[in-house]
Amino acid sequence: VNTATLSDPVQALKDMSKEFSHSVEVVHLCDYSFGYCLGCKSCEKSGECVQGDDFNKVIEPKLREADLVVFATPDYFAMPSAVMKNFMDRSYSSFRAVSSGNKEFAVFISAESDYYGCMSVYERVKEYAEMMGMSEHSEPYFQMNTKATFEVDDRLKDYITELLMKKIYVG
DSSP class of residue 50? Predict the structure, then answer.
């Protein structure tokens, strides 16, 4: 299982959002070049990361602007993918800006493993999002026993509809 298996549900979310007049932008983290957190804590003084890479220029502004962040990651040995973990570490520099807003989050997880692997990934993403001041928008969506594709079935469509029908913060 890899992150590409999540392209179908993410695309379904994007397609279905049009029915609800919501704007959805998909950010594929693997399409960007950004380094690991240096742990230098320069961002605590300046509010910005000292690394002038795609995280600062592209990803962080999108995180700051989003009302709802949907984290989509496969289960890699009961952990989020490495690029998702790197995103979580690097967003430390965004903490003040993100935690002061009314952001919400939701989670898509695909796995070849069982429920416990998905729950472990979910707990890590949830802990991160809550530390960033986000509130949970809806229960996580797990697709287990996924070998090559993540099926867009009625269960997923119902989940996305419920996600889109809930209040989205504006402003």
Answer: S
Helix axes 82-90, 115-131, angle to 10 degrees: 20
Task: Report in angstroms the alpha-carbon separations of 97 from 48, 49, 165.
Answer: 10, 13, 26
Structure tokens at 10: 């993410």
pLDDT in tens, 99-118: 766 888 989 888 876 788 88
Could you give the C-alpha distances from 58 to 3, 32, 34, 55, 62, in angstroms and in order?
A: 20, 8, 10, 6, 7
12 token code pair: 């379904």
17-31 pLDDT, tens digit each: 888 888 888 888 999
The kind and range of the H/E element at 99 are helix 95-99
Distance CA 97, CA 102 (A): 11
Burial class (CB in 10 A: 0-12, 13-18, 19+), 86: middle
- Could you please report the per-residue DSSP string of 36-47? ------HHHHHS
Q: Give pTM, 2 decimals.
A: 0.82
Instruction: Report the run of H or E that residue 106 belongs to, with start and end.
Output: strand 104-111
